[in-house]
Amino acid sequence: MNVWLTYDLGIKGDYPGLYKWLDTFKAKECGNNLAFLKFEYKTDIAKELLEHMSLNINFKNGDRIYIITNFDDNATSKVLGKFIYGNRKANPWEGYAQTEDTAIDG
């Protein structure tokens, strides 16, 4: 199955382990911290992908892996995203958009 994988391992992350793992799958670089690869699985792509990665990469608190793929072969071609390791953080761009301020300064 086609998978786009984003990764954030912080400053001291196991990038050598991650890069070796990505190279094993002949992953294609798609920009900063984004790769494309093909991964064959049996029943649960998210679980099996993380299990396989964990055998090769030393994850630590704060690391994040997010995948974008079609999670169900039997479904429509709808593409979905999911964190398989770590969680979403606050948006660094929050507050940058200009909004109409209705307050009157006096």
Helix and strand layout, with pairings?
Blueprint: E1 2-8, H1 15-24, E2 28-29, E3 34-38, H2 45-54, E4 64-69, E5 80-85
Antiparallel strand pairs: 1-3, 1-4, 2-3, 4-5
Outline the structure in words.
This protein has 106 residues and is of the alpha+beta class. The protein has a single domain (2-85), classed as Alpha-Beta Plaits, CATH 3.30.70. It is built from two helices and five strands, in the order E-H-E-E-H-E-E. It has helices at residues 15-24, 45-54; strands at residues 2-8, 28-29, 34-38, 64-69, 80-85. A five-stranded antiparallel sheet has the order 2-3-1-4-5, with helices on one face. Strand 2 and strand 3 form a beta hairpin. The model has no long low-confidence stretch (mean pLDDT 89).
Feature tags:
alpha+beta, 2 helices, 106 residues, five-stranded antiparallel β-sheet, Alpha-Beta Plaits
Q: Biggest sheet: strands side by side, in what order?
A: 2-3-1-4-5
Gross morphology: globular
Derived structural class: alpha+beta
Number of helices: 2
How many beta-strand segments? 5
CATH level 1 class label: Alpha Beta
- The helical percent reads 10-25%
Low-confidence stretches: none
> How many discrete domains?
1
Strand content: 15-25%
Which CATH architecture is right? Answer: 2-Layer Sandwich
Output the helix-strand order: EHEEHEE
**Integer average pLDDT:** 89
Could you please say which CATH topology applies here?
A: Alpha-Beta Plaits
How many angstroms does the end-to-end distance come to?
60 Å
What value does the Rg take, in angstroms?
Answer: 18 Å
Largest sheet: 5 strands, antiparallel
